[in-house]
Design a protein that fits this description.
The chain is α/β, with parallel strands linked by helices. The strands form three sheets. Strands 3-2-1-4-5-6-10 form a seven-stranded parallel beta sheet, with helices on both faces. The chain has a three-stranded mixed beta sheet with strand order 7-9-11. Strands 8-12 form a two-stranded parallel sheet. Helix 1 crosses helix 8 and helix 4 packs across helix 5.
C-alpha cells in the first residue's frame, strides 16, 4: 500500500493516478473540506479511464495534528509520497505554513517510525536553494543560507527538509525533490493552479524569470526514484526557465487578450514603499515585500543536469506543457 498526502493538490492527484496505472494500491489523504469530486473530474485530463482509476483510491481523512490519525493512515503502508503542504507568499500565512509544512511533516515522519513505511518521498521546492556554482547555476549543492532573507514559504520548506534529513539519518529511506513552478490541470484556484486565472485577469507581468515543470514530469520522476531505490539525495526538477512575461503573453494570446505589460522597477518600488507605510492597514499590500519582489524580478539559472543524468530523462518543453494544460483550463471553464 502507498500513501499519497495532499492527493487533492495539483501534484498529489497525478502521483496517485500514475501509481494506480502501475498497479499500486493507493491510499490518499484529504481534509474534511476537500472536494474529491473535483479530483475525479480532473482525471479526465490524464486518462481515458478516469472513473475506474478514481474508484480504486482509498480516501482517508487525516488530521496532521493528531498522531493517532496519522498512524491509522499509515496502517499497512510501505511507501509515502508527501505532497501535502501550503503554498503562499503572503506574510499573513506564515503561521499556517509553519504549522502545516513543518509540524505536519515532523508528525508524519514520527508516525512513520512506528509503522511499516520503508520509503519516503518529500516534495520540497527550488525556493530553498541559495547560491550558485562556478558556472553561475543553482544546483542541488546550493544549500539554504540562513543569513539571507527568505519568504516564509521557503523557510517552511527548508525546515521541513531538515525533518526529512533527520529521518534519513535515523534509517528511513528518503528522497527529496525540488520542483520549480508546477504546471498542471485541475485545482485551478490554488497554488500554481492559479497561474492561468492570474495571467488571464491581470494585463501585467513581472520582469523576472521562473523555472517551470509539467506535473506529469514531476510525478514520473518521483515514482521512478522510489522504484529505483535512489535515496539520501535531493533532485532539482525543472524543465526550463522562462521569462514571466513570455509565459503570460503565451497564455493571454490563446485566451484572446492583449499582451501583458512589464511592471516597471519604479512601480514595484512604489508598491514596496506603500507596503512599509500602510501594510498594517491594507493587508493586500504586504505581498509587496522585498523578498517577493526580488524573486519575481531576478533571472536565476537553475540546473536540472543531475536528474537528467540520473534517469536519462527528457522533460516536456514548457510551452508544450502550458498549451496542454491551458486547453484543459479552457475546457473546464466552459
Amino acid at each position: 500500500m502507498v500513501l499519497v498526502t495532499g492527493a487533492t493538490g495539483i501534484l498529489g492527484r497525478v502521483i496517485a493516478l500514475e501509481l494506480l496505472k502501475r498497479g499500486k494500491s493507493v491510499r490518499a489523504t484529504k481534509r474534511s473540506t476537500s472536494n474529491i469530486d473535483e479530483v475525479r473530474k480532473s482525471f479526465h485530463f490524464y486518462t481515458d479511464q478516469p472513473d475506474d482509476f478514481f474508484n480504486k483510491i482509498e480516501w482517508v481523512e487525516v488530521d496532521f495534528g493528531d498522531i493517532n490519525s496519522l498512524q491509522n493512515a499509515l496502517n499497512g503502508v510501505t511507501e509515502v509520497y508527501h505532497c501535502a503542504g501550503k503554498v503562499s507568499f503572503h506574510p499573513d500565512d506564515r503561521r499556517t505554513m509553519y504549522h502545516t509544512n513543518i509540524e505536519g511533516t515532523r508528525r508524519l515522519l514520527f508516525a512513520c517510525e512506528v509503522s511499516s513505511v520503508t520509503k519516503f518521498c518529500f516534495v520540497s521546492s527550488t525556493a530553498v536553494l541559495d547560491g550558485v556554482d562556478e558556472n553561475g547555476e543553482v544546483t542541488e549543492d546550493s544549500n539554504y543560507n540562513s543569513k539571507l532573507a527568505h519568504s516564509s514559504y521557503a523557510k517552511s520548506k527548508h525546515f521541513s527538509e531538515m525533518e526529512v534529513w533527520r529521518a534519513s539519518a535515523e534509517g528511513l529511506n528518503t528522497v527529496i525533490i525540488n520542483p520549480g513552478v508546477i504546471i498542471g490541470s485541475g485545482n485551478w484556484q490554488s497554488s500554481s493552479g492559479e497561474i492561468f486565472d492570474a495571467f488571464s485577469k491581470y494585463p501585467y507581468a513581472m520582469s523576472g524569470s521562473t523555472a517551470y515543470i509539467d506535473v506529469r514530469d514531476v510525478s514520473e520522476i518521483a515514482i521512478s526514484l522510489m522504484e529505483k531505490n535512489i535515496f539520501g539525495e535531493r533532485f532539482i526538477l525543472i524543465s526550463e526557465s522562462r521569462k514571466i512575461v513570455e509565459v503570460a503573453n503565451f497564455v493571454r494570446e490563446r485566451l484572446g487578450k492583449s499582451k501583458a505589460k512589464i511592471l516597471s522597477k519604479g512601480i514595484l518600488t512604489a508598491g514596496y514603499v506603500l507596503n512599509k507605510l500602510f501594510g498594517w492597514l491594507f493587508p493586500q499590500l504586504r505581498i509587496m515585500s522585498k523578498v517577493n519582489l526580488e524573486t519575481v524580478t531576478s533571472h536565476q539559472i537553475i540546473s536540472n543536469k543531475k536528474i537528467k543524468e540520473e534517469l536519462d530523462y527528457q522533460f516536456i518543453p514548457v510551452f508544450e506543457s502550458i498549451d496542454f494544460h491551458l486547453k484543459n483550463y479552457i475546457s473546464a471553464k466552459k
